[in-house]
Give the backbone structure.
Amino acid sequence: MTGDTDKTVLTVLRHLVERGPISRPDLGAGAGFARATTSAIVNDLMRRGLVAEIAAAPSGGRGRPVALLDLDDERYAVTGLEIGADRVLAAVYSLRGRELLRIERSAEVESVNPRALLRRAATVLHEALDAMEEDSRTLLGVGVSVAGLVDASSGTIKYAPSLGWRDVALSAGVTEALGGRAPVLIDNNANFAALAERRHRQRDGGNADSLVYLTGTYGISAGIVTAGRLWRGEHGMAGEVGHLIVEADGRRCVCGRRGCFETRAGLSAIVSDALAAAAGRPGSRSRAGREPATLTAGLNEIVSLAQAGDTGVINALGEAGRWVGRGAALVCAMLDPLAVVLGGDYARLAPWLLAPAKEAFRDSLLMPVTEVEQLEVSVLGPWAPTEGAALAVLLSFVDGVRELPA
């Protein structure tokens, strides 16, 4: 969109996305517009079905309900899809981020070639969209998340180690599989998750203009938010922190080098180390030499063993936590964010991983920040990239990339 009027509309819409629900006076003050200008813009957005008034209890619980403004929660929907090596996640959300539908399906390990996995993902996505259409909502688009190096501008997966993909035109493939049902945008899981994390923190009244989200799923990538916006780097490839060297002459990594962060703190390494520590111990339910069928199955097993008090698993998770903390400290030293957020499946492992991670994090920083806790766990869990993918569809309107619905 172009023109001063359009910019003012998008400014108000962005403020509602990030700060709603909010009163009209606070919206005008936050957006920096006069009351009459704000009112005209709000009325236009309400006509488009993007904004609605909601009633809120008055301060102190007395008096008449207060009318607040927020995104319309009934008319439109946005959808997120995450394609992983062993599972496909799809979810549909209202514009406010309310989850309307969630689907999780396993992906056969042997179907990791692009065409087979895309067919599996398309089946799940069609299932989600069919259910949404029964709710009579208008779909604004689909965001698709993949772990790896992604050229978001072209929708191409440059390299996804967990999938074995190189130069896969994913946007074109998903668009074709959908048969034109919705516009499609593509990005990596860390960037999408960072968007979702930021929005949750903003809507809870927090400062989220600067954060780094570390994925804890198929690899370790960083979604970097600075000055309130995603930072992609000069070539759009920023955030591949899983391949920082943290251990000279360390373990061999999938990238071909040794000592990468992922070889100690990636989920695959954590699962492997924990099961090895459990195998053969008296009373352990893990059997030596047995590989889990999928990474998710392995994660479920080590969580179950840790909950049952398996000391080998608990000690292995503590050691993994220390590596997570050291790697997070490297990221913090380079970028100095307000918070480094441990996301994805790190959240499930937090009861055993977080305390040693925080200790190693503080010990590894040259000047630890004492006023705030910089290393935190995401409240969104493994669904953050899916939610962020859906949110990115909404933000494509806010950023003026796509025209607002009429």
Summary: The mean pLDDT is 89. The CA atoms of residues 339 and 374 lie 4 Å apart. The first strand starts at residue 51 and ends at 56. The two ends are 13 Å apart (CA to CA).
